[in-house]
Fold:
Amino acid sequence: MSTPEPFAGPDDDMTLAELVNRVLDKGALISGDVVISVAGVDLVYLGLRLLVSSVESMRERGGWGRS
Amino acid sequence: MGVHAYCIIPALHTPPAQLRGVHDEPVSTVAAGELGVWVSHHDAPPPPSAVAARAHNNVVRVAMTQTLTPVPVRFGQWFNHDEAAAQQVAEHADRWLERLRHFAGRAEYGVRVERPEEASSARDVRPEPLGSGRAYMAALAARQAAAAARHREAREIAAAIGAAVGDLVADTRVEEPTTAGTVLRVAHLVAWREVEAYHSQLGVLPSTRPIFRFLFTGPWPPYTFVS
Structure:
């Protein structure tokens, strides 16, 4: 069965902002940790406490967890 | 190879054979008891981008039907192998099953309220760093007063939106973002059968508040209602 068509056009800038906000900031955290590689340079670590850190500062604290 | 996760769904609901996800990789199911998680396999965690976010969301949208709505997974959930993903999903199976029951037959819709002329907002009133102590305190007081006014305004609009949609929505989340120009973000969980009435009720709001810009979006997988 199909679902209704989108309310707003997918190319609209604000709709893109809404999409990015949902996909990157909401949704289930299965393991409690999210590891995101930014532009192949830094890693942003988002834990349940929304701790954000660069890869260097994470190393200084002894690394990060992955599942 | 590692695993990028898209959504949690009953195990019997498998992805279409040709479905492609982030980086155009094929999407498959990892079974976790009576649940499954839709995944794609990659050499490294996919970096976030608008294209990747769209691809991620598209996979979750494909999983949605009129009767079944998956639990969407946040972009960036990465596992070293399928077994790790299955184990983590199974560990909280009761929680995911409860969410699946809550989401069934429903989708998320969004209302974003913008104020184009943001010049009078609290965030544009800055204390004068080199002024007198009195001027500094006056600027701080002005900023706090503007922030309070902005909060009242946001609450008033949120109440108007809530009154408009009434019991057409099954669940609601309200945020007051700190992003300049954005007054309010509201997410609604709406049954498919109520969508037409929901749109109709919201459609009258922009004309009653012409200084604001209303953006209505959806349907979305229910990212905002997972927790």
Remarks:
- Residues 22 and 54 of chain B are 8 Å apart (CA to CA).
- Chain B touches chain A through 56 residues (CB under 8 Å).
